[in-house]
Amino acid sequence: MRLMTEHFLEEWNSGKTDKLLLIPMFILDFLCIHPFEDGNGRMSRLLTLLLLYRAGFIVGKYISIEMLSEESKETCYEALQDCSAEWHESNNLYEPFVKYYLGILIKASNEFESRVEYLSDNKISKPERVKRLIQNTVGKINKKEILEKCPDISKKTVERTLADLVKEGLIEKVGASSATAYVWIQK
To answer: How far is the C-alpha of 26 from the C-alpha of 51, rounded, in Å?
Structure first.
């Protein structure tokens, strides 16, 4: 089933097919058409955001879907390759690309949920929230990431908390200058 133009609009407007399934199918068709010499990937990500907004899914306002796509571009290329075979004959599969896109949306939603979790926990102090964030992070986390995940906490509070946690021996400072990160010490 080719979804371009009127078929896509008919499906979109009818409400018979979930829009979270229609969007990646449309994007796959767009990428297979390859309308521009350069910039098709970027344009597809913009179209994705527009369609998500139109469908009422606003996670892309808060989490960079473009960044998540960039981080998993090899998987994207594999899904595109699997789905574009026999596309010109209207005999292609959409499933691998739809699964890839839904995976990106799940990852974005989980990231958004984790950010909101730290913002909504008003019962604990800001230094305690920073401490818990580091404690729940697998591997290293840097000051910039802490500030992104806790935008309501000032840079000064984060720096003071990090210094206190290092002094208490709860975290370890690794790297230097702009590469400085922190790791929770398992006890």
So the answer is: 10
pLDDT of amino acid 120: 63
**Largest Cα–Cα distance in the chain?**
66
Q: How many helices (H) and strands (E) does the chain have?
A: 10, 2
Given the structure tokens 């179209």, which residue do they identify? 47
One-letter amino acid for residue 113 of the chain: E
Q: List, for the chain, all residue ranges whose pLDDT scores fall below the cut of 50.
A: 1
- Which long-range contacts does 182-186 make (Cβ < 8 Å, 24+ apart)? 182/134, 182/140, 182/141, 182/142, 182/143, 183/139, 183/140, 183/141, 184/134, 184/135, 184/137
Instruction: Return the pLDDT at 8.
Output: 84
pTM > 0.85: yes or no = no
DSSP H stretches of helix in 94-186? 95-120, 126-135, 143-149, 155-167
pLDDT cut 70: percent of the chain above it = 93
Assign 141 to helix, strand or coil.
Answer: strand
Residue 135: strand, helix, or coil: helix
Assigned token pair, 119: 């913002």
Q: What is the pLDDT of residue 1?
A: 46
